[in-house]
Amino acid sequence: MKLKKLLFSVAALAALTIATPSWAETELSVQRFFGACEADFGTNTDVDKAVGECGIITSLINKFNAENSDINVVVTTVEWPGYDQLTAQLAAGDPPDIVTMHESVISDYQSRNLLMPMDDIFKSAGIEPSSFTGAGVAGVTKDGKMYGMPFDTWTMLFHINLNLFKQADMLNADGTPMLPSSPDELLEQARKFKAATGKPYMIQQLANGVAPYTRLFYTFMAQQNSDFFADPMNVKLQSDEARNVVNLFKTIFDEGLTTIDMDYPSAVAAFPGGEGGVALNGTWLIGDYVAASEKEGALKDGYTVYPYPQLFATDASYADGHAWVMPTKERSDENIAATAKFLRFLTDNDYQWARTGHLPGVQAVFDMEDFKNLPHRSNIAKIAQTGVSLPPAVLRQFAVQDIIGEEISSAITGNKSVDDALKDAEYRVNDLLNNL
After folding, report:
1. Are 158 and 204 in contact (CB under 8 A)?
2. Which of 208, 225, 291, 397 could disulfide-pair with 263, CB 3.0 to 4.6 Å?
3. pLDDT for 24
4. Which pairing describes strands 141-142 and 149-150: parallel, antiparallel, or unpaired?
5. 27-150+322-387 and 155-318+395-433, same CATH topology
C-alpha cells in the first residue's frame, strides 16, 4: 500500500511539474562560428567587459538569456565555417533555428530554397531594412528579398607594428606609418624594413590555408578595375592584371619579405610577438591587438591598422560580411516570435559587435560617438565605400576561393609557373561552376 501511494505521489508530482508555467519556455537553437571561449566568458553578461569575436558574441547571448526568461537560446559552436555540418543538418531535416553565414555563401543555400526570406520577421520585430548599411543589404538580398540579417562588413587589413616601423625609420613626421602607393614602392619599403630590423615585413598565414592569398588577389584585381567575373559562370584569370598581383607576391615570397610557414594561430600570435611589421589579417583582430598593445610586449603602445594600401588605379578592398540566416523548416508561432526578439536584440547591440573591429551592419552605429571613439575606426571607415565583393550571382564562392588560393600558392611557392597556375585556376573554377 505504501509503495502504491509513493508511486502515485511521484506521478502526481511529475504531472504538476509539466503543468507549471516554466514549461512554456521557448527554446531557440542558434548555431554559430566565431570560436569557443567558455572558460573566459561562459557566464559573463557584462558585454562591455568582453573582448574579441568569441567573447562578445558569447556575452551578448548570455545577456539575452538573462533578460528573457521566457526564451532559452541554446548555442552550438561549430568549427569555422561550419557549412558541411549545416548541409548535413538540412539533408537530415533538422537544421538549427538561426545560423551565422557569410554573405558570400547565402546564394548557395538560397538558390536551393534552403533559407527562408526574412522580410516578414523583420517587420514583426520592428526592424527596418533601411536601418542596415547598403553593403549589408546588398549582401543578403536575393531575388528582391532579404535572406539574412546583416551583422557586419569585414575585410583584410594591414595591422602594423609601429615600434618596428620606427626602428626601420619608416614613420612619417606625424607618427603614422609610411605606406606604399605602388607595387614597386611596396617592394622598396619591404626590403628596407627587413634590412633594418632583420625581420620579414609581412606576417601571413601561408601554411594550412589559402584564403588569404585569394582575398588579397581579389583586392588588387579590383584596384586594377579588372572585371574578371563579369560572367558569374565563367571566370577570366589569364590576364595582365592577374599576373601583376601574383608576380608581386611571388617576389615578396622569394626575397623572404614575408613569413612562409605559419598557420593561422601562429600568424595571429606572431604579430603581437614582434615577429614582423605588417600582419595581413582581418577586421576581427583589431580588438585583440588593441588589447595586446596595452600590455607589456613588442606591440606596447605601438599598434595601428589600415586597409590594404592602394597600389593601383582604384582604391578598393575585397569585403564580405557575416549575417544571421533562418534555414528552411517548420516553425511554431512561439519560435518565430522568439527569433524576432533575438534578432532585434542583436541589431540593438550592433555597436557591441562592432567593437571586434568589424564594420557595423547597422548604419546608425557609424554616427554613434562611442563608435567614433573606438581605436583606429577612422582609419578603416572608408571601407564602407571602397569595399567590393564578387558579383552575388557567383555560386560556391568558398570553393572558388579555395581553388584560386591553391593555384596562386603553387605559383608563389614555385611549384608552377604563374601562367600555368592562372590557367589551371581558370579551368578548375569554370569546371566547378558549369557542373553544379
Report:
1. no
2. 208
3. 59
4. unpaired
5. yes
- For CA atoms 251, 252, 256, 259, the dihedral sign is negative
Q: Which element (helix H / strand E) includes 122?
A: helix 119-125
* For the chain, domain boundaries: 27-150+322-387, 155-318+395-433
Helix, coil or strand: residue 202: strand
Cβ proximity of 299 and 272 under 8 Å: yes
Question: Under a CB-based contact definition with an 8 Å cutoff, are residues 100 and 358 in contact?
Answer: no
Strands (E), 90-220: 98-102, 141-142, 145-146, 149-150, 152-161, 202-203
Q: What is the pLDDT of residues 336-392, one digit of tens each?
A: 999 999 999 999 999 999 999 999 999 999 999 999 999 999 999 899 889 999 988
The string of pLDDT tens digits covering residues 37-69 is 999 999 999 999 998 999 999 999 999 999 999
Segments of 206-254 assigned E as strands:
none
Query: Exposed e or buried b for every residue in 70-95, given b needs 16+ CB within 10 A?
Result: ebebebebbeeebbebbeebbeeeeb
The span from the CA of 324 to the CA of 102, in Å, is 9
Long-range Cβ contact pairs of 205-208 (< 8 A, separation 24 or more): 205/262, 205/263, 205/264, 205/266, 205/267, 205/281, 206/258, 206/259, 206/260, 206/261, 206/262, 206/409, 207/261, 207/262, 207/263, 207/266, 208/263, 208/264
pTM of the model: 0.86
d(Cα 147, Cα 143) in Å, to the nearest integer? 10
Q: Cell 606604399, residue?
A: 180
Q: How many CB atoms lie within 10 A of CB 313?
A: 9
Give the pairing type, strands 317-320 and 303-307. Answer: unpaired
Indicate the SS3 state at residue 377.
Answer: helix
What Rg value do the Cα atoms of the chain yield, rounded?
24
Residue 148 grid cell: 539574412
The C-alpha cell of 383 is what?
Answer: 571601407
Q: Return the CATH superfamily for domain 27-150+322-387.
A: Periplasmic binding protein-like II (3.40.190.10)
Cα(399)–Cα(435) distance, integer angstroms: 13
* In this structure, CATH architecture of domain 155-318+395-433: 3-Layer(aba) Sandwich (3.40)
